């Protein structure tokens, strides 16, 4: 499946409605972004159980700013609506496959428990 074009209009709803979402923040002028695009697109075709989305940081500057994007490409992953990964830099196909596998195996009950513990300690 082809990655979705994510914008300010559909980003929050896509995060909320996707059990697992990988987001590529990119720009047309960015060489590493252009090199990563076919890797990302290929993975999107291989993993139909994962939603893939792309944010053009040139046309979606407010969204990129809200996501605190300071370097591109940046890859973000959301699972069950929770941001569980955010890292600048392009991955090769093997690195992206390893990331997808680790995200699929991520224990969200443990993540939610950690978040609850962190919230309690801030109170």
UniProtKB/TrEMBL annotation:
Keywords: Disulfide bond, Electron transport, Redox-active center, Transport. PROSITE patterns: THIOREDOXIN_1, THIOREDOXIN_2. It comes from the Bacteria. InterPro entries: Thioredoxin (IPR005746), Thioredoxin-like_sf (IPR036249), Thioredoxin_CS (IPR017937), Thioredoxin_domain (IPR013766). Residues 1-105 form the Thioredoxin domain. SUPFAM superfamilies: Thioredoxin-like (SSF52833). Pfam families: Thioredoxin. GO terms for molecular function: protein-disulfide reductase activity. The keyword Cell membrane does not apply. GO terms for cellular component: cytosol. PANTHER family: GEO12009P1, THIOREDOXIN 2. Belongs to the thioredoxin family. This is Thioredoxin. It comes from Glutamicibacter soli.
């Amino acid at each position: 499946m082809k990655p979705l074009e994510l914008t300010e209009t559909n980003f929050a709803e896509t995060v909320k409605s996707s059990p697992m979402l990988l987001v590529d923040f990119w720009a047309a002028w960015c060489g590493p972004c252009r090199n990563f695009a076919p890797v990302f697109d290929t993975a999107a075709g291989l993993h139909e159980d994962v939603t893939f989305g792309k944010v053009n940081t040139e046309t979606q500057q407010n969204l990129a700013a809200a996501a605190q994007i300071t370097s591109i490409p940046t890859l973000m992953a959301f699972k069950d609506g929770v941001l569980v990964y955010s890292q600048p830099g392009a991955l090769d196909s093997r690195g992206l496959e390893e990331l997808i596998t680790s995200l699929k195996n991520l224990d969200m009950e443990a993540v939610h428990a950690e978040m609850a513990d962190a919230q309690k300690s801030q109170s």
